[in-house]
Design brief:
The complex is a heterodimer. Chain A is α+β, with helices and mostly antiparallel strands. Chain A is 31% helix and 32% strand. The longest helix of chain A has 15 residues. The termini of chain A are far apart. Helix content of chain B is 31%, strand content 18%. The chains are: A alpha+beta, B alpha/beta.
């Protein structure tokens, strides 16, 4: 009976298009001070990216996205954030997306090959990876906290 | 800005029918304009950008009063929805937690629906899947004795595809086709990387199994074609659009650096007129921050024009035929 249940569960997971990562590239809870990883890492192949970001997916597809991983985090029990890691075919694709998202308010930061920070988000690229970390509210220390998490992600890429 | 007495008078003169069994009976206005109400509350968000949820119900009441001409909310809602039938509330949680239809608006509508005689089990709040609904701040519930909150991932899609022009083999959500007698459309106003703007009509991408197949050519004519499919055209009759928060660029995902708070609800029946007004709001904000028009950046929402043409006839995008009431 247990074996049948396990098979059903595996089959159901396979049908969603979203799979759990084989090796989680995200910092574990506590690996970056104050940050807790609050959700499983979800991975989307390029053909399934619309399930995660329908309407946004095409710009990543045209830039050569291969897969996308995402996970939720929480800082000091309150500030919620999402980390998205887009693995592109090459660094050119990652650069294309980073440049497209830049506005005049962006602060350039030392992260990976290039990085941009705002009050509530940090985006950087490293090789073929494009990482976006977004917080859902702005607090006096949100940018600093996001940058710390970004460095934690960068170290695992 | 008109005073309350003036806008209620205008509302009564301009309101049109909603629902087969509950016509307001005021459709035959001389000018036959499509009414769109934009209700605003500048104090809806505090200085830190936090929504004051307690103010949402009052804003909703003001919007509905302006639209229907009925000052008493419960009486107004009785004119909008049929009693004894299942009412769907189609939200939009695609953009994630920061830019999804606010739960406070959903709860306010549910409160008024129940006061108007709709039983909790006759209300279904739905979107594509559990994550979208949770992004709105909603909790999944399938207990039929309470307000139901679940997605197409639970209820599934029709096996048989529907079609209208370019929208071929579109498999619709069973929640729409089998469960709801009427749908209240609750989109959230956003810029959209492909369509230009996503609001009333574009929210229907969440009722089909494979929305990505409808993205070609900036979603034109797919958005218009999709809205012509009978189940959508006939059941989705009234929009209470969430423009309390919005993104004016970089959508449909959450881009906090492009977030803005129009502090508004946009209400009406004419989905084309609603989208035209919503588009103009996005354009005004883009101009205010020095950004190019959607035309200039290569994604004008041409589907709005298409939806108004003789083939689709979904409503009007002619400003002369839109009665915009700002309260």
């Amino acid at each position: 009976m247990l074996a049948i249940a396990a098979i059903i569960l595996v089959a159901a997971a396979a049908g969603t298009g979203c799979k759990k990562a084989k090796s989680d590239p995200f910092p574990a809870s506590g690996a970056v001070a104050g940050w807790e990883k609050t959700g499983d890492t979800r991975v989307f192949a390029a053909k399934d990216l619309w399930q995660y970001i329908d309407g946004d997916a095409e710009q990543y597809l045209s830039a050569g996205v291969v897969s996308t991983s995402t996970s939720d985090y929480k800082y000091q029990g309150s500030l919620e954030a999402t980390v998205d890691v887009y693995t592109m075919k090459d660094a050119v694709g990652a650069s294309k997306i980073l440049g497209k998202g830049q506005t005049k308010e962006a602060q350039t930061v030392q992260l990976g090959d290039a990085g941009l920070a705002y009050a509530q988000s940090v985006t950087f690229r490293k090789g073929p990876a494009l990482v976006r970390i977004t917080a859902y509210e702005s607090t006096p220390n949100s940018q600093q906290a996001l940058l710390a998490l970004a460095h934690g992600v960068e170290a695992k890429l | 800005m008109k005073n309350r007495r003036e806008f209620l008078k205008e509302a009564a003169a301009g309101a049109v029918l909603i629902g087969a069994e509950c016509k307001l009976g005021l459709a035959a206005t001389p000018l036959a304009k499509s009414k769109v109400v934009v209700a605003r509350d500048p104090a809806l968000h505090d200085a830190n950008g936090q929504l004051d949820e307690k103010r949402v119900l009052a804003l909703l009441d003001r919007a509905i009063a302006a639209y229907t001409g009925h000052d008493k909310p419960v009486e107004a809602w009785k004119r909008i929805v049929p009693v004894g039938k299942v009412i769907g509330l189609k939200v939009n949680g695609l953009g994630g937690k920061g830019i999804s239809t606010h739960a406070a608006l959903v709860m306010a509508i549910c409160e008024r629906l129940q006061q108007a005689g709709v039983k909790p089990g006759e209300i279904i709040v739905w979107d594509r899947g559990a994550r979208d609904l949770q992004a709105c701040g909603l909790t999944i519930n399938t207990d039929p004795s309470r307000i139901r909150v679940y997605g197409n991932d639970v209820a599934g899609y029709e096996e048989q595809g529907e079609a209208f022009a370019s929208a071929v083999n579109v498999k619709l959500a069973k929640i729409l086709t089998r469960e709801c007698a009427m749908v209240l459309n609750l989109p959230i106003l956003k810029d959209h990387q492909m369509a230009g703007v996503t609001f009333s009509m574009k929210n229907m991408y969440g009722v089909v199994q494979k929305p990505f197949e409808l993205h070609a050519n900036n979603c034109n004519p797919s958005v218009a074609d999709l809205n012509c499919i009978p189940a959508i055209r006939e059941k989705v009759r009234f929009t209470i659009g969430d423009a309390m928060s919005s993104v004016y660029d970089g959508g449909p995902g959450f881009r906090p650096e492009r977030l803005w708070q129009p502090n508004a609800l946009i209400v009406g029946e004419d989905r084309v007129a609603l989208d035209h007004i919503a588009w103009q709001m996005i354009e005004r904000k883009r101009a205010e921050v020095g950004m190019g028009t959607l035309e200039a950046v290569g994604r004008p929402p041409r589907y709005i024009v298409t939806a108004a043409d003789k083939t689709h006839n979904l409503g009007t995008n002619d400003p002369q035929r839109i009665h915009l009431l700002e309260v």
